[in-house]
Design brief:
This protein is an alpha/beta fold and 245 residues long. It is built from 10 helices and 4 strands. It has helices spanning 2-7, 12-20, 41-54, 60-84, 111-121, 134-140, 143-148, 157-161, 184-187, 234-238, and strands spanning 92-96, 125-129, 151-153, 166-169. It has a 4-stranded parallel sheet. Strand 1 (92-96), helix 5 and strand 2 (125-129) form a beta-alpha-beta unit. Helix 3 (41-54) packs across helix 4 (60-84) and helix 4 (60-84) crosses helix 5 (111-121). It is globular, with a radius of gyration of 18 Å. The two termini are 16 Å apart.
């Protein structure tokens, strides 16, 4: 639905209000994201589909869910490449959040793996940060880029962003909800620095309405581009764009 909302020129927030008005749906699980992962849901969806096939039934809906989830995991990279180009050699992309969800270090089928692999394939340098999943991410992510230094895992979230051309929010950890780029010690870490504004796409609608300095990063499209909630930074706030919170 966020992808449809973007194509129609709607904000995801407006679309979510309409969908959640149905009490059978509600608001709790209606936030857009970068795709599901983990050890349970992907396995269960595939198991149900196999059971249906074995009974001679075509599980159209389950197959569509799995297909759409695979597509969704690629959308963040597509958003970055649409802004920075398909050839990302010489570009540095910061990634906040690696685990498939906050509150865990589980990297099984995490959307961040698809994103990072795509960025590396396009030639980007990737600096990644997660408050809990760094060690499991080291094992889950490609090993050669780590040895070559094109994929680095940072110990501090603002260190990951310093000098980067773009910042991508993948996992909605609480500390990513209101990044403190207004503090002088962190302001220099804004993506693009003084060079030029750059996109800050987000796989999760985790941003709170915290204004950033005037030279902060621009927003790539609306808050619901291609099914993703794009982080509403100062540029979007000044333009009157609704928050996808």
């Amino acid at each position: 639905m966020p992808a449809c909302a973007s194509a129609w020129g709607w904000t995801w927030k407006a679309c979510a209000r309409g969908i959640s008005a149905d009490p059978r749906i509600g608001t709790r699980f209606i936030r857009p994201g970068a795709g599901y992962g983990g050890s349970c849901l992907p396995k269960d969806v595939r198991a149900l589909a196999r059971m249906a096939h074995s009974a001679g039934f075509d599980p159209v809906l389950l197959s569509a869910v799995e297909h759409r989830n695979d597509q969704q995991k690629s959308r963040l990279y597509e958003m970055v490449s649409s802004e920075l180009g398909d050839d990302l050699r010489g570009k540095t992309v910061a990634v906040w959040g690696l685990a498939f969800k906050p509150g865990t270090d589980d990297m099984r089928e995490a959307p961040s793996i698809t994103l990072v692999e795509s960025l590396l394939k396009a030639g980007a340098l990737v600096r990644a940060y997660d408050p809990e999943a760094t060690e499991t991410a080291r094992r889950a992510m490609p090993q050669d880029p780590q040895a070559e230094g094109t994929l680095r895992f940072m110990t501090e979230q603002y260190e990951a962003v310093e000098g980067a051309d773009a910042l991508v929010l993948v996992t909605e950890w609480p500390q990513f909800r209101a990044p403190d780029f207004c503090t002088p010690a962190h302001a220099d870490a804004l993506p693009g620095g003084d060079r030029r504004p750059q996109p800050v796409p987000a796989g999760r609608s985790a941003r709170d309405g915290v204004p950033l300095p005037e030279r902060g990063p621009a927003v790539s499209g609306s808050p619901a581009v291609a099914g993703m909630a794009v982080a509403d930074m100062a540029v979007a706030d000044r333009a009157g764009t609704d928050m996808a919170a």
